[in-house]
UniProtKB/TrEMBL annotation:
Its cofactor is [4Fe-4S] cluster; S-adenosyl-L-methionine; Mg(2+). Coiled coil: none annotated. Transmembrane segments: none annotated. This is 7-carboxy-7-deazaguanine synthase. It comes from the Archaea. It comes from Natrinema pallidum. Binds 1 [4Fe-4S] cluster. The cluster is coordinated with 3 cysteines and an exchangeable S-adenosyl-L-methionine. Binds 1 S-adenosyl-L-methionine per subunit.
């Protein structure tokens, strides 16, 4: 199936990031599988089953799923096991998230099986990988320069990911193909006013590259913050920026409700 150039490098990336190569499309490295409310985006508040894979090709310094990226942990689960657990919950929506779930060939097999069973699927992706799969909503979160783990922000303290992250964080070809193929929401993690010029420039480039319109209604600004205390510092200004630029604001409902508890 068609993939982007970034996905062509996925085998090497996954060995580095998740600690094991993706040897079969019948299993996935699963960090968490749980039932909760969708906390972000246009479907915020919808009861959903979350399937969180481990392994990522980027390293945002503020990553709120640290154990899928900086210190990836997982249990490898077979497709049948994953589907059985999903079906044990009374939910029509499934969110495939990470890490970066499109790294894994097994994610495509899972999405096909969920489509056959009538589930609505959202895929949370950083937009650096394109794959052709049955996805109802592609929730694409392009990473801005403010996400780069500079030595002073790197949670490991060594800054070894700075260059790699900065080089790989935007793949315009993959972004254009995602917005052309899927119902999409572009969800930007915003720290402050300094992020807005880059968002405007990225959207201009994407509109030039894509063969379909990219509406401001599909652009969501989300405050940076994985804890209630941090959100209290960022959300008011991000809400003001959404109104100023004519974009949508998305909360982080799960953080408001449960702070940084796992499986939320």
């Amino acid at each position: 199936m068609p993939v982007s150039d970034s996905a062509d490098r996925a085998a090497d990336i996954e060995t580095d990031a998740a600690g094991t190569a993706d040897e079969t499309d019948e299993s996935l490295p699963i960090n968490e599988l749980f039932y909760s409310l969708q906390g972000e985006g246009t479907l915020a508040g919808v009861p959903s089953v979350f399937v969180r894979t481990s392994g990522c090709n980027l390293r945002c310094w503020f990553c709120d799923s640290y154990h899928t990226s900086w210190e990836p942990t997982h249990a490898r689960m077979r497709l049948a096991e994953i589907l059985a657990e999903i079906e044990s919950y009374d939910a029509d929506h499934v969110v495939l998230t990470g890490g970066e779930p499109l790294l894994h060939e097994g994610s495509m097999t899972l999405l096909e099986a969920l489509d056959e069973r009538g589930y609505h699927t959202t895929v949370e992706t950083n937009g650096t990988i394109y794959r052709d799969a049955p996805i109802d909503l592609a929730s694409v979160s392009p990473k801005l320069a403010s996400s780069t783990p500079t030595p002073d922000r790197d949670p490991t303290g060594d800054g070894e990911w700075e260059t790699r992250h900065e080089t790989d964080r935007i793949d315009m070809d993959a972004l254009a193909r995602l917005v052309e193929r899927y119902d999409v929401q572009l969800k930007f993690v915003v720290t402050d006013d300094g992020d807005m010029p880059e968002i405007s420039e990225l959207l201009a480039d994407l509109r030039a590259a894509a063969d379909v319109p990219v509406s401001d209604d599909d652009v969501l600004l989300m405050p940076e913050g994985a804890t209630r205390d941090r959100l209290a510092e960022t959300r008011a200004r991000v809400a003001e920026l959404a109104m100023e630029y004519g974009f949508r604001y998305t909360p982080r409902l799960h953080v408001d409700l449960w702070n940084d508890a796992p499986e939320t």
